[in-house]
């Protein structure tokens, strides 16, 4: 499925200017149909899957309890 620059910006939750910048830097692959750039939505699947894994890892780390320090001496 192909998206316009505006649709891609909404899909990636980025400003249109950022998407246009990524296109000009060749970080997003496009097809120019004579009027506008069309972007294949499938090229983002790997990136989005990796971001979900990263978010899950960060959540797991944040939810891990802090171990007690063995060097702390109870003064009572």
TrEMBL record:
InterPro entries, alphabetized: HTH_17 (IPR041657), SinI_DNA-bd (IPR010093)
Helix-turn-helix domain boundaries: 2-50
Highest taxon in the source lineage: Bacteria
Keywords: DNA-binding
UniProt signal peptide: none
GO molecular function, one term: DNA binding
Name of this chain's protein: Excisionase family DNA-binding protein
Annotated organism of origin: Cytobacillus spartinae
């Amino acid at each position: 499925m192909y998206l316009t620059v505006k649709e891609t910006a909404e899909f990636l939750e980025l400003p249109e200017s950022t998407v246009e910048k990524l296109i000009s830097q060749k970080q997003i692959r496009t097809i120019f149909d004579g009027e506008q750039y069309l972007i294949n939505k499938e090229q983002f699947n790997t990136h989005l899957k990796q971001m979900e894994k990263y978010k899950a890892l960060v959540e797991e780390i944040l939810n891990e309890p802090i171990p007690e320090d063995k060097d702390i001496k109870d003064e009572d």
